[in-house]
Write a structure and sequence with these properties.
about 100 residues; 4 helices; 5 strands
């Protein structure tokens, strides 16, 4: 569980969402936008912050942002893909139907 205050911010110029704990970047999810599609390519949580639920908070915030912007999601990133698979009722609709099979969703 998250033991400290964590916030997620979209660093658009760096093409990544960052999760910040106590003023330090604890992890990030990189993405690329093309038209109305946001492709998540890589997610990292620093080893010092593992096991605190930060990856899930990061994925949830990034997917919620994509939804708010009306974007389709292409989950190339294994972590984001796994999060969508575990939360199908909430996020599967973000992945275009034509892409779901190739990502085993």
């Amino acid at each position: 569980m998250i033991s400290r205050m964590a916030t997620v911010r979209n660093e658009e110029q760096q093409h990544r969402f960052e999760i910040v704990v106590d003023g330090k970047v604890a992890g990030f999810a990189e993405y690329h936008d093309r038209g109305n599609r946001r492709t998540f390519v890589h997610t990292v949580i620093d080893d010092a912050y593992e096991g605190q639920g930060l990856g899930s908070q990061l994925a949830r915030s990034a997917l919620d942002d994509a939804r708010a912007d009306g974007r389709d999601v292409v989950p190339v990133c294994e972590f984001v893909r796994g999060y969508i698979a575990r939360h199908r009722d909430e996020y599967l609709d973000l992945v275009p139907e034509a892409d779901r099979e190739k990502f085993d969703l």
